[in-house]
Amino acid sequence: MLAAMRGTRGGRTVFAPRMDLWAIALRARGTLPAEYDGTNTAELADAFGVGCHAVRADYTLPRDPGDLVLRGLGFDNHPDYPFRVEIEGLEVRFETTEEGFSTTVTTSSGPVDWSLAYTAGMARAGVSLPFVESYPAYDAGDLDRLAEVFEHLVVRPAPGSWERFSERVGKRGVAVANGCIVGSPMHLLLHELMPIDRFFYAYHDEYDRLAAFAERVEPFFERMLAAVAASPAEVVLWGGNYDRDVTWPPFFDSEIAPWLRRVGAVLGEAGKVLLCHTDGENEGLTEGYVRAGFDVAESVCPAPMTGVALGSLRERMGPAICIWGGVPSVMLLRDSVSDADFDSWLARLTVESARTDDDLSPLILGVSDNVPPDADLDRLRAIADAFRP
């Protein structure tokens, strides 16, 4: 897997599907097969004979609810992350309920607050992080107070955390370190801090105020980048959840790609690989990905769930970007895809994955975005068998 991420072609194609959300859902439903009870994602990979998908952290492991204090700002903490994000110098009130969490931060000009939902039903659906119910910003007038919060965020390296994560994964895969789930400060506003419709209006009507906020957040992003660059991780996730309609191509090129190039340069100097979680509709964005210069496009979902076939994606992204994905999650659902159609698709996949032309993307197979809770495990095993050495 690491060789493919670094651009090597011609090796064995590894199948490394994301299993954590599947396990979370079935545990919550009480339907997890007994042989998988108590297993983490590395052990699940062993059980299914596949590579281990280990991106950011193992979310099947329990953690302190206090690690979600800053989730409404787009940042959580986890024992597997190479650094922790905390607030220093401002009063913080964090409350938990049976169905969620709320945080209030007191700034010099008033409170900034948000609330999160996490219900039993969400766990049964395989959700690993709570959803935002109320946002810290609703219009450009909220951004000065919010920027003050970011100016009080500290990044504390967590020595040994990523190392324990990597040791757990072992030779089963690559422990991809958590860097930042969004690509840039402006992407953070869109993806995490404001309702999406309010962001679009503000981006059109009050761009200068959004840009001023993003500039005030940049030092915090630099602190995260310095921390992850200093970690021993070989591969770092920075940015993701791109989509043709949400992070439309001109927005990606102007607001996200410059930061990705900046991150890529710092990580490259440290000998590290830059991975992005490209799980949306990639039609129209692939050329921007190449210009952005990141190394791995992870969670790539091809047709029929999106508009571009895997072969075309490999041609468009070319040899500079390794694709990790290519198995649409719908293929694992009997209610959506017949056995005959699955068999035909798998035959085509084995042919496509065998192509090692110098102008194509290297390939790691994965389920995009994740193995769904209602997946047919016989189909999952059939894919694993097709790519077993």
Report a brief summary of the structure.
By secondary structure, the chain is of the alpha/beta class.
Describe the structure.
It is a single chain. The protein has 389 residues and is of the alpha/beta class. The protein has a single domain, classed as TIM Barrel, CATH 3.20.20.210. Helices cover 38% and strands 20% of the residues. The chain has a seven-stranded parallel sheet. Strands 3-4-5-6 form a four-stranded antiparallel sheet. The protein has a two-stranded antiparallel ribbon with strand order 2-7. Helix 10 (249-269) runs parallel beside helix 11. The model has no long low-confidence stretch (mean pLDDT 96).
Model regions low in confidence, pLDDT < 50 over at least 5 residues: none
CATH-defined architecture:
Alpha-Beta Barrel
Beta-strand content: 15-25%
Distance N to C terminus:
14 Å
CATH class label? Alpha Beta
Mean pLDDT: 96
Radius of gyration: 21 Å
* Count of distinct structural domains: 1
- CATH domain fold name: TIM Barrel
Our count of helices gives: 14
Number of E-state strands: 13
Strand order of the largest sheet: 1-8-9-10-11-12-13
What is the structural class?
A: alpha/beta
Shape: globular
In N-to-C order, the SSE pattern is: HHHEEEEEHEHEHEHHHEHEHEHEHEH
Main sheet summary:
7 strands, parallel
Share of helical residues: 25-40%
